[in-house]
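INTERNAL AUDIT FORM
Audit reference: QA-55
Scope: verify that the stored structure record matches its stored sequence.
Auditor: D.O.
Record contents follow.
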Amino acid sequence: MEKLPTRFWLGYTGNGAEWARADGSNADGHHADWPYYQGPPGELNALLDLCQYPHGTDLLVADDIDRVILFVVEPRRKKTADDLYAAAWHEDLKSLQVQGFIEAECLSWGSIDEWRHRRWMNAHGEGEELFAKLADGTMLPIPEPIVDPRDPDEFLDELDTTWPLIRDGETRVKVTDKGWAIMEEFLYDALTLGPDFSRISTLLELGFTDTAVREASVTLESMLKRRLRTAKFGNNLISQIDSCLEQGGVDLTYRRIVITRLRTVFTFVRNKFGHNIDPRLPVSEANALCWRIVSLYDSPVWDQLAIDSE
């Protein structure tokens, strides 16, 4: 993992074909109506997404489409609409697991045929048959995929075993201490603070880490309230932002990514440090949290909101 995480990821272009990066270049296609979407390929980007949530957070597999896994944060919220998510590419997840950056429960890796069979088994209820509905309404039975037994002497190329064998409702991942350490190290080096965050720089230099994170959260929320010319805060502010982005013509999928990341910062960073003192917060963790806040603050998506009143 030699490259820093991609800072801006525009998500699905909405044309049913390709993803778009912030520089306008295209990435691989994805075809799913999800509440959240993955970042660009790369194990560090995957780790960045999984590390949106506090240490020890369990992420339950919610779906698996187009070689990408969608995770939902546990414990689940009272309302499904309030659930929080992460996502990552198959290949990146396997790499993170092999290197010990994540630990996984009920997750192994196999061939595409084994993956297809596991998918069929997960969908096949006891005593039930599976059908596909054709355009003319005909119900076509889906037979159980055949998987030939592996020859113990057969060598399987690494690319042949990058398909996740998941157990519905049981497969979870969690970032390990090793994973957190590597992420915090990268984000420590990646943090760049502009003039709007000059006070945060001073606080970090003085060792007031929790105060720096609190100040950064307030700076982000104040900017958003100023742009919207609103007194709303918290979840009400986020709802108004989502509505304004929709009115500004921002793609639905991009909105879902932005709003989820904003909700994550508000829920796990702003709320925690706005009401609690943590003088022993490590500098590395404070830098990582500030990086997330600054990345949201600097996002070009806010140009689609109301013009700043200043």
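Auditor finding: record pair retrieved intact. The chain has two domains: 9-179, 192-304.
Action required: none
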